[in-house]
Description:
Oligomer: single chain
Helix content: over 70%
Structural class: mainly alpha
Number of helices: 12
Number of strands: 0
Strand content: under 5%
Distance between the termini: 26 Å
Shape: globular
Amino acid sequence: MKRLRNWLLFSIVVLIWSSNWSVMKMGLSYVDPWSFIYHRFLLSTTALSLLLFILKRRIPADKRGLVRLFILGLITSIGITSTSLGLVYEKSGVSAILTYTQPLFVFCMAIPFLGEKMNIGRALGVLIGFLGVMILSTRGDSFIDSLDFPVFLLVAGAFLWATAIIYYKKFLSHIDPTVANTFQLGVGVVLLTPVIALKGLAFPPSLDYIAVILYTSICAQGVALTLWVLLLREEEATVLSSSSFMVPVAAIIFGWLILGETVEPKVLFGSALILAGVYMVNKV
Length: 284
């Protein structure tokens, strides 16, 4: 019964996160990326804080626990910011594929930090996956001359997401998921407030934008990320992260349906290598 429940929750996460890439892309057409990111952090933190109060969840009182929660928030908020900035200049489907290289990073870090085992098949899967990243990371004939900075931002976001997964699994899995997620997003508000103070905060008076920011904040960062942390506490980090390869596949479909995005042959080839690598890491 618990296994079935977790798969149902995971399916909800996949549906929300895959559609969220197109929704975020739409939101970024209304405001500058810094305002958009700040709106997401602020709304999701507010909603989760209210939920904490209603559910009467206990916040750790020990200094070590609070410091570790802050570090988790620091890693997560920087990762989300990096991903959002990369999304400004890249298609939603490609952005999703690159961000979901995180299972490859999770596997690499799970070996030394969580004691998970390496084998030839999984090592090959990591190499194939990163080959796909290299293909998606270039825009011309020369690899050195055509490295794409948005791709770097998206891969950096994937690496930081993987780091947050390993960090939570090793140090904070005893913490309530709602508490952990509130701290993750709340730190983002603190970090971005000085940036917003310098740049200014824009909020367009548009019902469409309000709908977009509510979906990407409350559903994607509030509900789905909390469910993800809950699943991470109960499932193996490598298996859960690798299973999430369904998100970018669905994101490409949503990008085509909602935004009319086209998929180039090179993107298909690179994406296929990444997904094959993630699959091998998970199954071999």
